[in-house]
């Protein structure tokens, strides 16, 4: 097979997937706003025409990137929908970074994206907000299943702990930082569970 054929195949099928993979790498290492569309095209590698055929704007690319992360299981929230883990352990799973050996620790991609797109009306910020609201709904359902008192308030406390721990883990570059918040979450759950006596 010639070099020309190999290069053309690299730029052919799977362009959207290559664009999303390149964007994920670049966004994680240098941030969303610091990453230009031309840089994504070069990293993919695809032509700018192909890039814009898949994603008309950078906002479209960022939202697709966040959707891809949400469906991949690589976010804190993914543990909440796992049927193979008991409800209490799913909640406590929020305090474990999905990729503990990643360098540097990135924290929550939805919080990161909302910080880089601070306008609440932007598509990126709106999607990040949607994911954070989904997170609290999932935790509310789990603590309700456990029989906890005041499930809505408890869920808000737990997701606030999880988001705070993820943010501090990123700032401190410490993938194990969630252990502190997990201890607090265990205390909250213990006090909220119905008494067995």
From TrEMBL:
Stated name of the protein: TetR family transcriptional regulator
Keywords of this entry: DNA-binding
PROSITE patterns in alphabetical order: HTH_TETR_2
Lineage summary: Bacteria, Bacillati, Actinomycetota, Actinomycetes, Kitasatosporales
Domain (HTH tetR-type) ranges: 13-73
Kinase is among the record's keywords: no
Pfam families linked: TetR_N
Positions of the DNA-binding region: 36-55
Keyword DNA-binding appears in the UniProt entry: yes
Origin: domain of life: Bacteria
């Amino acid at each position: 097979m010639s070099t020309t054929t190999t290069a053309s195949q690299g730029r052919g099928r799977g362009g959207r997937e290559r664009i999303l993979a390149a964007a994920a790498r670049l966004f994680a290492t240098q941030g969303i706003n610091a990453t230009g569309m031309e840089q994504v095209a070069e990293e993919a590698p695809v032509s700018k025409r192909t890039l814009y055929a898949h994603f008309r704007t950078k906002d479209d690319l960022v939202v697709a990137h966040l959707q891809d992360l949400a469906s991949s299981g690589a976010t804190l929230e993914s543990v909440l929908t796992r049927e193979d883990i008991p409800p209490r352990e799913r909640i406590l799973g929020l305090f474990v970074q999905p990729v503990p050996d990643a360098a540097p620790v990135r924290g929550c991609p939805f919080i990161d994206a909302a910080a880089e797109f601070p306008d609440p009306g932007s598509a990126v910020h709106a999607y990040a907000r949607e994911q954070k609201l989904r997170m609290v709904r999932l935790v509310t359902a789990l603590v309700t299943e456990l029989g906890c008192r005041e499930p809505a308030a408890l869920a808000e406390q737990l997701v606030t702990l999880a988001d705070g721990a993820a943010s501090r883990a990123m700032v401190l570059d410490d993938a194990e930082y969630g252990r502190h918040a997990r201890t607090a979450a265990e205390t909250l759950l213990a006090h909220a569970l119905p008494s067995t006596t």
